[in-house]
Structure formats: C-alpha cells, structure tokens
C-alpha cells in the first residue's frame, strides 16, 4: 500500500464571521467523510481499475474483438462489476452524507447566520440583489451535486443556508486540497498572472458565477486597487459571499445578482473576466452566449481566464469514464458533454482570435500550513486540484 498523505482535519477549515459555529461532532463527521473520500480515491479506486484491466476489458475484447473505444462503452461494461458498484455506491453515499452533515450543522443555527450576514451586509452598498433575475433552468432543474435545493433555494427571508452549507462542506469534499479557505484555484490564477504577466494590472475585474466568492477573493487581494464585480444568479450565495468577503477584510468586491448570459455593462468594461469551475454547470446553449458576452465586455488588451476540470480530448477512455462519474451519479447534467467541447473553437466562435487563445494546466495552490506533505497523486478524480485553464487575450 503506497504512502498517502492523510487529509487535514476539518478543525483547520478557514473560519470567518459568517462561518457556522460547530462542535466536535461536526468535525468528526467531516473528518470521517474526508477520510472516506481519500480511501475511495487512493485505495479502492486502483482496485476498480484492476477489475477493468483484468476482468471487464478482457471480457469486452472477447465479445467484440476489440478494446472499448469510448467512455460510454467502458461505463456500460463496468456497470455490472461488483467492485465498481461498491466504489460508486460509497462515493454517492459520501456525497449525500456530506450534504446531511453540512445542512444539519447550518439549519440548526440558520437564524443566527442570517443575522450575522445581515449585519455585515448593512455595512456598505457592495451587495446588489435583483429579485427580477430568473435562475436559469439549467441551474435549478436538478439539485446539482446532490445539494438539496441547489444554489438558489431560499427557505427564509434573507436566507444564506445554502451558501453556508456549500462553504462548510467543500473542505471535506476536496480533502483540504484547495486550502483552508478553499481558494487554491483563485490563488493559482493570481500567482500565474504575477509570474507570467507581471505587467498586467487589471483595473476592473468581473467574475461570473462567483458562488460564495472562494476564488475571487484571492484575485481581489492580489489587485487591491482594482474594482471587482462578482456576479451570480443565486441570492443566498451573494448574501453570504458579500458578508464573507467583508468578514475577511476584502472590501473591493461588489457582489451583484445578474445573469452572465446578458449583462448591462457597456462594451469593453472589464480588463479581466474570470470563472472558476463554472462551465460544467452551464447548458450547451448558455455557454456560447456567455462567451460572446465575455468577448463584448472585455476591453482591448484584456484577458479572460477560466479554471475548469481537464477536457477529455486525448484522455484514455477509462480515465474519461472515471471522470464522468459525476455526470451519471452526482447530478451534473452538463459535465459529460462540456468536457468534450473544443474550447478553442468555442472561443473563436465567441469572437476571440485563434492566436490569442491559450490552454494550460494550473494546480490549485496547496495550503502548506494544513497540508505539509505533498500528496503523491494530487488527484481525486472529479474534484481534482489540477485544472485546465483556458482563456484568451482580446486583440
Ligand atoms: C460551480 S459554482 C461556481 C464556483 C465558484 N466560481 C467558485 O469559485 O467557488 C456555479 C455557480 O454559477 C452560478 N450560475 C449558474 N448560472 C449562472 C448564470 N447564468 N449567471 C451567473 N451565475 C450563474 C450558480 O448559481 C453557482 O453559484
């Protein structure tokens, strides 16, 4: 058995003034889940692969006279395999238990959380909600990644419970790989900009689909003189995101309820437009619309940069199948098709010149205070800390 780093305990999660209060039992629940996920990713997952190589693939080859060529063929062939079924059922249970743990913690203190957010949100005019913004069907029709009520559902006036649940559980789901404030992606982008483009000093930054602001906060900190606008369609996320940012002492982000498909800013309003883990939750019709809007909103010489899970092109069908698990078992209806897109072509269709397009890999910045040992694999298929970053400079 290879030496693996244990996930950091949830007691190290980054707290702030709207983070839910917790007891030892909550830490124990999240620690159990982080370790279960770690076990599934590092111990059981290799055995699933062994079952594929030693049983399922040879049986497929015997029947068809060739190896499986697509992830769909691999998925159908693996569906009846016992070890895959065990791994998959445990993974799904772990997602459901994570939601129960987070919601159980949040709902028993929801009134106090709403009051804390209200107090912080009253401190300035950086939160702009708009009840006329409709949550698109692609973001509301299913409970994305088993999150009851999705991002947008409000149970009470000024509700923040969905956001507090999102914030407290992601550290366990990712095994702390994104840092105590779950901001490793935003930190990676800020670091990439500082290292690769030190002259680039955006004055206005737009982040689309900011959720609770995990990844826009480090960018706002990296560019403290910039005016940052973070939008989302879900009011509970924005209330919490604004309160969280202010609680963390970050005052240059304005949080607005708006739909990234059509925004009311003038052409060329932004120097930098970002998203993080956003596109796999956009429908096939919404994504091109949003990309065209980004092109319109970007100033000449501006940059758009997007952090996502790796695309499937050139990836072995088995690896694709494992990464595709979320599409079939974790309520991610756009995941599978999104990871097939030709992003260069989509960006070109949105107006970006082909020679201004780039694709690179960035690894979420690991918080060495809580994660002193670098993980051997660094990967937890589906929630990896290694992302594709694609984007373009506007001519
Ligand atoms: C996976 S989360 C993004 C995570 C976030 N960027 C981060 O760094 O933690 C997707 C978010 O996009 C929002 N969203 C979905 N459709 C949108 C749209 N058309 N315009 C703006 N936000 C949208 C959802 O409400 C949700 O908060």
TrEMBL record:
It comes from the Bacteria. The keyword Methyltransferase applies. Keywords: Methyltransferase, S-adenosyl-L-methionine, Transferase. The keyword Transferase applies. CDD domains: AdoMet_MTases. GO terms for molecular function: methyltransferase activity. Pfam families: Methyltransf_25 (PF13649). InterPro entries: Methyltransf_25, SAM-dependent_MTases_sf. Residues 205-302 form the Methyltransferase domain. GO terms for biological process: methylation. This is SAM-dependent methlyltransferase.
């Amino acid at each position: 058995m290879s030496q693996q780093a244990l996930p950091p305990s949830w007691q190290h999660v980054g707290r702030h003034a709207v983070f839910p209060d917790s007891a030892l039992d909550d830490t124990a629940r999240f620690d159990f889940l982080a370790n279960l996920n770690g076990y599934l990713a590092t111990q059981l997952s290799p055995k699933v692969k062994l079952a594929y190589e030693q049983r399922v693939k040879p049986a497929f080859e015997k029947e068809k006279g060739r190896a499986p060529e697509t992830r769909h063929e691999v998925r159908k062939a693996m569906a009846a395999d016992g070890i895959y079924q065990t791994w998959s059922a445990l993974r799904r249970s772990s997602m459901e238990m994570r939601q129960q743990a987070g919601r159980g913690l949040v709902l028993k203190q929801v009134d106090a959380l709403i009051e804390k957010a209200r107090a912080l949100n009253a401190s300035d005019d950086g939160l702009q909600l708009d009840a006329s913004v409709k949550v698109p069907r692609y973001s509301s029709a299913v409970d994305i990644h088993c999150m009851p009520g999705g991002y947008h559902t409000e149970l009470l006036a000024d509700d923040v419970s969905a956001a507090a649940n999102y914030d407290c559980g992601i550290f366990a789901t990712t095994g702390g790989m994104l840092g105590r404030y779950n901001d490793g992606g935003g930190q990676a982008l800020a670091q990439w900009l500082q290292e690769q483009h030190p002259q680039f000093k955006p004055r206005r930054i737009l982040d689309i689909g900011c959720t609770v602001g995990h990844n826009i906060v480090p960018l706002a900190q990296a560019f403290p003189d910039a005016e940052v606008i973070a939008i989302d369609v879900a009011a509970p996320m924005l209330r919490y995101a604004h309160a969280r940012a202010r609680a963390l002492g970050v005052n240059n982000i304005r949080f607005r309820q708006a739909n990234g498909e059509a925004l009311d800013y003038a052409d060329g309003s932004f120097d930098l437009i970002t998203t993080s883990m956003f596109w796999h939750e956009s429908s096939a019709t919404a994504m091109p619309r949003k990309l065209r809007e980004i092109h319109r909103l970007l100033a000449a010489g501006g940059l758009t940069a997007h952090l996502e899970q790796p695309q499937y092109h050139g990836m072995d069908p088995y690896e694709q199948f494992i990464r595709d698990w979320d599409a079939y078992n974790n309520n991610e209806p756009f995941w599978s098709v999104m990871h097939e897109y030709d992003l260069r072509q989509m960006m070109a269709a949105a107006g970006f010149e082909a020679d201004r397009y780039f694709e690179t890999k960035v690894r979420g910045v690991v918080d060495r205070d809580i994660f002193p040992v670098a993980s051997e694999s660094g990967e937890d298929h589906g929630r990896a800390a290694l992302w594709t970053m694609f984007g373009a400079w506007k001519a």
